Amino acid sequence: MCVRKASGVRMYAMADQSVTETADRLMCLLNELPVSERSGCALGLASRLIEFAAFEMAGTYSADDVADLINCAARVDHASSDVQTAMPDTIPQTFRRMQ
Question: Would you tell me how many other CB atoms lie within 10 Å of the CB of residue 54?
C-alpha cells in the first residue's frame, strides 16, 4: 500500500513538473510576441484555460462555483477582445515606450 501511495505521489509530482515546464515554455512563447500582442493573447489563453477548468469541475463542484468560473472566463475573454481591438491611438503612452 505504501508503495502504491508513494508511486502515486511520484506520478503526481512528475505531472506537476510537466505542467510547470509547459507553462514556462508558454510564457517564453508569449514573451516572443510583439509587446502590442502579448496581453491580448495571454488573456485569450487565460480565458480558455478558465473555461476548460470550469467544465472539468462540472458535476464535482457546486453549480455556483462552476458558473462563477464560466462568468470569469467570459469577462476575461471580453477583456482579451477589447485589448486586441484597441486602436494604436488608444494605447497609453507608457505602453508605447515599452515597444
Answer: 19
Task: Report d(CA 44, CA 26) in Å as an integer.
Answer: 13
Number of other CB atoms surrounding residue 68 within 10 Å: 13
* Number of domains forming the structure of the chain: 2
44 with 89, same domain? yes
Domain span including residue 96? 35-99
Cβ atoms 45, 33 nearer than 8 A: no
Task: Give pLDDT tens digits for 9-61.
Answer: 555 566 778 888 898 999 999 999 999 899 999 999 999 999 999 999 999 99
